[in-house]
Amino acid sequence: MHGVRARNESAWLLPNDGRRTNHRLRLDMRQFADEDEVDLLIVGCGAGGSVLLQRLARAGWKVAALDAGPFWDPDTDWVSDEAGSHGLYWTDPRVIAGSDPVPMGSNNSGRGVGGSMVHYAGYTPRFHPSDFMTRTLDGVGADWPLRYPELRPYYEMIEQELPVAGDRWPWGDPHGYPHRPHPVGGNGEIFLRGADKLGITAKVGPVAITNGRFGNRPHCIYRGFCLQGCKVNAKASPLITHVPDALAHGAEVRADAMVTRVAVDERTSRATGVHYVRGGRERFQRAAMVAVAGYSIETPRLLLNSSSSRFPDGLCNDFDQVGRYLMVQGAPQTAGRFDAEVRMYKAPPPEVSTEEFYETDPARDYKRGFSIQTVSPLPITWAEHVSAQGHWGRALREYMSDYVHWSCLGALCEFLPLPENRVTLADEKDQYGLPVARFSYSQCDNDRALARAAQSVMEDILRAAGADEVITIQRYAHLVGGARMAADERLGVVDRHCRSFAVPNLYITDGSVLPTQGSANPALTIMAVAARAADHLIAGASGGIS
Amino acid sequence: MSGDPREPRGWEHRFPGFKPLSQAGHWDQVTADAVMARVGMPRAAQFFTGPQAACARALLNLLTGQDEQGDQSAVPVLEMVDARLAAGETDGWRYADMPEDGQAWRDTLSYLDAEAERRCGTTFADAPETDQAAMIQAVQDLESGDWHGLPAKHVWSLWTRYACTAFYAHPFAWAEIGFPGPAYPRGYKNAGVDKLEPFEVRDAQPAIDPVRKGD
Question: Which CATH number fits domain A2-538: 3.40.50.300, 3.40.50.2300, 3.50.50.60, 3.90.550.10?
Answer without folding.
Answer: 3.50.50.60
